[in-house]
């Protein structure tokens, strides 16, 4: 049965292109402040989802500082990434959204403002 297992074409190759990625098991643990921030972000995502998903919002769009592009994350992917960060110190590997409709996603700032508006409205009534 070992014949059925695909062989790594770069096994033992000193020029393996994946070597630039580093070892995924050697992630730096989060600092206490980073962990607290990720826990706060996870709580925020849960509130955002609770209030925005019924309005048809599929998730958040985030500006990537590394590539300068926008990345679209559905609620489950955001939740999973944050939980993975808290537990393992790094986000999970994921595929980008396939041809997302930008109208279905909102920014973090928009989501925060929406939640603040709901809270303000509830406090007035």
TrEMBL record:
Region of interest (Disordered), ranges: 1-31
Regions of compositional bias (Basic and acidic residues) in chain numbering: 1-10
Cited Pfam families: DUF5319
UniProt-recorded name of the protein: DUF5319 domain-containing protein
């Amino acid at each position: 049965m070992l014949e059925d297992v695909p062989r790594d074409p770069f096994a033992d190759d000193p020029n393996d292109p994946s070597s630039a990625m580093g070892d995924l098991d050697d992630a730096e643990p989060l600092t206490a402040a980073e962990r607290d921030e990720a826990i706060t972000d996870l709580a925020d995502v849960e509130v955002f989802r609770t209030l925005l998903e019924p309005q048809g919002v599929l998730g958040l769009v985030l500006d990537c500082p590394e590539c300068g592009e926008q990345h679209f994350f559905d609620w489950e992917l955001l939740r999973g990434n944050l939980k993975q960060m808290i537990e393992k110190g790094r986000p999970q590997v994921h595929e980008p959204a396939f041809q997302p409709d930008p109208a279905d996603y909102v920014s973090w700032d928009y989501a925060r403002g929406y939640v603040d508006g709901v809270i303000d409205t509830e406090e007035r009534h």
